Fold this sequence. Notes:
CATH class of the largest domain: Mainly Beta
Structural class: alpha/beta
CATH architecture of the largest domain: 3 Solenoid
Strand order of the largest sheet: 3-6-9-12-14-15
Helix content: 25-40%
Largest sheet: 6 strands, mixed
CATH superfamily of the largest domain: Hexapeptide repeat proteins
Number of domains: 2
Strand content: 15-25%
Distance between the termini: 51 Å
Number of helices: 6
Number of strands: 15
CATH topology of the largest domain: UDP N-Acetylglucosamine Acyltransferase, domain 1
Order of helices and strands: HHHHHHEEEEEEEEEEEEEEE
Amino acid sequence: MKKILQIIKKITLIPHILVYYYSWNKSDIDKDLNRWATAKNIQKSNTGLLLHFLAVSPDFRTLFYYRTRSLTSHILNLYCRKQNNFTIDVTTKLAGGTLTGHPYCTILNANSIGENFYVNHLVTVGEVNGKRPTIGNNVSIYTGAIVIGDITIGNNVKIGAGTVVVKNVPDNCVVVGNPGRIIIK
């Protein structure tokens, strides 16, 4: 019965395929799909992956609707809802390959976020006095971390659970604590 319901849901998601194929951001969506497929160990075509993740993952739908911002996406969101407690600010430049780990109550409000970004739940990336962070490639931010202000997070950085980052972090570091301190460089 569950499989039949998933098939019906995937049929209702077919308009999303058209949005995907005509999206100006298709290459970033492809990177997201490949990253998610690798993490979940699923092998399908990009169209099959798109239908699968749209059907089973509200956080992927949030990412998809962010990448395909249009009137059509808003209409599709009416019957295939995104995750309402995962927010990506429309002015944030978010590169491809983004992966989420059930981002309940997560806010992404940065100048830019690089490729292969991973974010977990209860994370805040935000502004202080109108100034927002810039995050490099291959960055992972874990549960409950806060990254705020006019700071730069380098490439290949891991920010541990509960860490509060208010200062720049160079490349290839692990940051933990409150206030955040580099433990591996």
